Structures are given as C-alpha cells and as structure tokens.
Amino acid sequence: MQPVHAPFPATRLRRTRVSSGIRDLVQENKLDTRDLIWPVFVCEGENHEEPVPSMPGVMRRSVDKLAEAVSEAYDLGIPAVDIFPYTPSDKRSADASEAWNPENLSNRATRAIKAACPEMLVMTDVALDPYSDTGHDGYVKDGYVVNDETVEALVKQTLSQAEAGADIIGPSDMMDNRIGAMRAALEKNGFQNVMILSYAAKYASAFYGPFRDAVGAAASLKGGDKKTYQMNPANTDEALRLVARDLSEGADMVMIKPGMPYLDICRRVKDQFGVPTFAYQVSGEYAMLQAAAQNGWLDGDKVMVESLMAFKRAGCDGVLTYYAPEFARKFGSA
Ligand SMILES: NCc1[nH]cc(CCC(=O)O)c1CC(=O)O
C-alpha cells in the first residue's frame, strides 16, 4: 500500500482523531472476548483453589472448581479454554505414562467441563513435561530429548485427550513429525473433527518461567533449557518452515509463542499462509504486566487492552491469554 494524501493543510491527519466517535469509526482492528482462549490450571483435591504466586490473579483449581469457573467464563463470552494439569509428583515418572491415563487430571477436567458447559471448546496440551520426571516435553536419552519415541508417546496422549472429549489438541512439544502422526491416529480412531492447533513456532523462551512454577515442572527441569527442540529466538525464516511443515501434516490452526516479543513472526505467518493464526501471551508476559500494575508503575487495565490489541494488529485471529476473564468482565470488546 502506498498512502496518498494532499499536502498540509488539505490533509490534517489529526481530524480523524478529534473525538471518540470518529476514532471508533476509523479504528482498523477490534478485539473481542470471542477471540480469546483462556489457559487454566487444574490440580488435585475438591473445592480447592490456590493462587499461583508468580502470576497474580491466576489460580490452580480442583476439577469441580474449574468446571464452575469455566462455566462462568462461558457466560462472559469466552469460547475456549486450554487445560494445564499440576500433576502430583508421585505421578511423574520416566515413561510419563500418566500422560495417557484416561483418569489423569487433564482428562477428568475435560469431562467435567464438558458436563457443566457442553458448548465450551476444550483445548488440551500435548507434551510430556507435566508427567515426566525430567521436566522435559519428551523422553531424555543420554542427555538428549529423543524425537521418534517421544512422538509415539504424544500420539497416545492425544488419543486419550480426544477420548475424554477435547475439541482442540494443542501440541506444544516441538518434536518433528508429531502433527502428521497425531492427525493419522485421530482419523483412524474416529476423531475426524478433532482440531489440531499446532504450537508451530514455539521459541526456547525465558518468558515461560512462571508457567513452569504453575505446573510444577520447574523443579524437575533443574535449570535446564529446551533449546534442542524449541526455536532459537534469533530466527524468523525457520518459523515459516515450521508453519508450512505443520500445515502440510494436517494442522488446522497455528500458534506463535511467546506473543509480545514475537509479533513480527505473527505478521509474517499471517501474510504468508492466511490460515487461522494464534499467539500465546505467555505466563512471563502476563507476570511482568501484572507486577508493574501492582506496583502502580503501569495502568493494569490499559496495558491489558493495549497488549491484546497488538496481537490483532499483528494479524492474529485470536490470543491465548491469562487475561481472558478479566478482559471479558471489564471490557467485553475493545
Ligand atoms: N510444553 C509445555 C508448555 N506448554 C505451555 C507452556 C508455556 C505457557 C506459558 O508460559 O504461559 C509450556 C512451557 C514450556 O515449554 O516449558
């Protein structure tokens, strides 16, 4: 696009900013609660809620409490939730087999949400980190996260989530060939309409810190990193290759993660592929905005809206954000 305009004063660009009415009329991007996916944490227990200290405003909830909170979120207009389990340490193991236990926390939460609120879209996370004794998303052999054996486990996890009623499978593991393997298994087992929202461009980021506390994976990871499978934050072309690859294997939608530091990737992906594109405003992004707001250094409501609007401007169709209920309650749309 080449903007053309008459010279000043025929053109005064401030004219269309003069009142809120005209500002609204010419606003290019809109943000709506219906664009948001709410990531939620589930823990064992009954009638139990506990705050996640590094994520002010975020709770871990027992299955019953989660189902209640999710029903309220649905009433606020939030269309989808993404479930993350806080697995008790005695259920984390070398083979991570709790990941495909039909009775694991994530599957129980899926069923409870579907029972309480059938229209809510349930997304589930595919990766072994809440179940492995290493805190890694896959199996570790000789210090390396092995690909192909991990994919076999991820396929079992996927099927158990679909069986429990998940609508959207969210592979966050970054193994090679997992989308194709999952898609084939879903087709074969009668889950033709179960969607895959691929974490296609997921970076090895320090912004996941508070999340690893929230799901209890930080301790097992022992300060290790995920650089042999998650992307180098310095790369962009590689993100396009990953998105192309995941689409060719049967992903329905793609995600960029983290969000705010990677808006350039969102824009490139949307322009290049034109597919449903999501960004994950991750735990660390949320934590830093909330921490500054708590200190009175930033206006919390305003930075919430501005940070979410940035994703729409960058071309995203939707955003995974811990702010979802707060945005829905306070604004609904912007
Ligand atoms: N596979 C795990 C997973 N799924 C979502 C997040 C991060 C979400 C967040 O920080 O909010 C992570 C963390 C990681 O890769 O270590």
From TrEMBL:
UniProt GO BP: protoporphyrinogen IX biosynthetic process
Residues in coiled coil: none
Pfam families assigned to the protein according to its UniProt record, in alphabetical order: ALAD
Gene3D superfamilies recorded: Aldolase class I
The protein's annotated pathway: Porphyrin-containing compound metabolism; protoporphyrin-IX biosynthesis; coproporphyrinogen-III from 5-aminolevulinate: step 1/4
SMART domains (UniProt xref): ALAD
Domain of life: Bacteria
Cellular-component GO terms for this entry: cytosol
Signal sequence residues: none
Molecular functions (GO terms): porphobilinogen synthase activity; zinc ion binding
SUPFAM superfamilies, alphabetized: Aldolase
EC number: 4.2.1.24
Active site: K202, K257
Catalytic activities: 2 5-aminolevulinate = porphobilinogen + 2 H2O + H(+)
Top-rank EC class of the record's enzyme: lyase
Annotated keywords: Heme biosynthesis, Lyase, Porphyrin biosynthesis
Family according to the record: Belongs to the ALAD family.
Subunit structure: Homooctamer.
Name under which the protein is recorded: Delta-aminolevulinic acid dehydratase
